[in-house]
Amino acid sequence: MNKSIVITSIFEPTEAVKAFSQLKGYDLIIIGDKKSPIKWDCKNTTYLSIDEQLKLNFQLVELLPFNHYSRKMLGYLIAIKNKSDFIIDTDDDNIPKGNWNFPSFNKEFDCITEDNGFVNIYQLFTEQKIWPRGLPLNLINTNYNFNELISQKECKVGVWQGLADEDPDVDAIYRLTLDVPCYFNDRRPIVLSKGTMCPFNTQNTIIIKELFPLLYLPTYVTFRFTDILRGLIAQPIMWLYGYQLGFTNATVIQKRNPHDYKKDFISEIPMYENCDEIIEIVSNVISAENNISDNLLLAYKALLNKSIVTKNELITLEAWLGDLKNLC
Question: In a designed cystine with 308, which of 206, 293, 297, 303 is the match (CB 3.0 to 4.6 A)?
Fold first, then answer.
């Protein structure tokens, strides 16, 4: 099985990048940007500068803005062109631990029952008060009785989200009010059933080939919303085809790059305003009779009607889907 790790970076090779480059059996693809060093070099790595990106024969090349996280999609397309069976999303500040890996995709796992709405999956891995970025704010003080919701079931996982120790993925409200490092407890992987959801991000995540269209990163929403929106749209589409989202132990340590928490908060406002209705909006317009790409397009059209995304998003999405079709 071919596995690709995709990262975007504007720095010299970081500790995390160097560590990922030393892993056996993975193709590491680094997408640079205008702020990236001119001379970037790391062994066992495919690095694409802006000049090299502009030579790619993808529709997206001409549409993606510079100095933007969405340029990572060019790395996904390269991985797909190289016949990857799995694509792993991570960042240049997530250092893999010695146990870095992901569980099987088809196996019996602890599974949370159907139709519980949003859950705070962090509560299964720590007693600390903490919640994932994208959890609706009205739920951050909710204590879930997971003991009554979990049973062992045969699962069909399409996406695994690995957690991150030290500075995990949380929202600006957490960082502005608590900002306490977190080291998660080890436990067995946990899988969510249809109708039970949790935000997932691009920090330590693997997705199977059949779901590659869902890798699309919204380009015209705010930076702190883009990967969360992607994950919220993905989950109801995954359910149509029997796929589930799973979470596993913290297998990276995040040494977070500098952030301005106030700016992060402002960037997250659309996420706070819309995250709890996106699942319903998407679920109402998709159908198992359609393929994944068509459902993704229907989802974004519905979000456009609700003014959650703009018309430019549809243009970029159609280019992404066109590039995927040309690679098939």
Answer: 303
